């Protein structure tokens, strides 16, 4: 099996998160996405301390597809410097992980 990752980012609104989720899944850069929120964020931005409400987006993909997913998210994200991070999926049910692989495969291999 291939290496899998969960990628996260956040947006200001639910609608922005859903739009990003739809665009990456339709592009087959992620097998699926969950939009979670609202969540409260605490951060430094432009030298100032702040808090805010955000919508978190969690995406499942392969390590091989991460670079293309990151590029897509940065290009389509409403923020100039969005958080885009990936953590390895160290274990998962084999049927689910096969589904992830199949879902992001080019159409000719499905």
Instruction: Output mean pLDDT.
Output: 94
Cα-atom Rg, whole angstroms?
15 Å
Low-confidence stretches: none
Beta-strand content:
35-45%
Order of helices and strands: EHEEHEH
**Backbone shape:** elongated
Strand order of the largest sheet: 2-3-1-4
Assign the structural class, choosing from mainly alpha, mainly beta, alpha/beta, alpha+beta, or little secondary structure: alpha+beta
* Count of alpha/pi helices: 3
Q: In this structure, how is the largest beta sheet organized? A: 4 strands, antiparallel
Helix content bin: 25-40%
| DSSP E strands, number | 4
How far apart are the first and last residues' alpha carbons, in Å?
17 Å
Jot down its keywords:
single chain; 110 residues; alpha+beta; four-stranded antiparallel β-sheet; 3 helices; 38% strand; elongated
Description:
There is one protein chain. The protein is of the alpha+beta class and 110 residues long. It is built from 3 helices and 4 strands, in the order βαββαβα. Strands 2-3-1-4 form a 4-stranded antiparallel sheet. A hairpin with a 2-residue loop joins strand 2 and strand 3 (48-62). It is elongated, with a radius of gyration of 15 Å. The mean pLDDT is 94.
């Amino acid at each position: 099996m291939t290496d899998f990752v969960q990628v996260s980012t956040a947006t200001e609104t639910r609608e922005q998160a859903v739009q990003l989720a739809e665009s990456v899944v339709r592009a087959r850069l992620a097998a699926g996405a969950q939009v979670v929120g609202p969540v409260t964020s605490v951060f430094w931005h432009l030298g100032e301390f702040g808090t805010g409400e955000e919508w978190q987006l969690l995406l499942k993909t392969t390590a091989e597809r991460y670079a293309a997913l990151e590029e897509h998210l940065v290009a389509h994200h409403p923020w100039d410097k969005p958080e885009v991070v990936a953590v390895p999926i160290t274990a998962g049910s084999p049927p689910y992980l096969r589904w992830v692989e199949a879902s992001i495969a080019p159409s000719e291999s499905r």
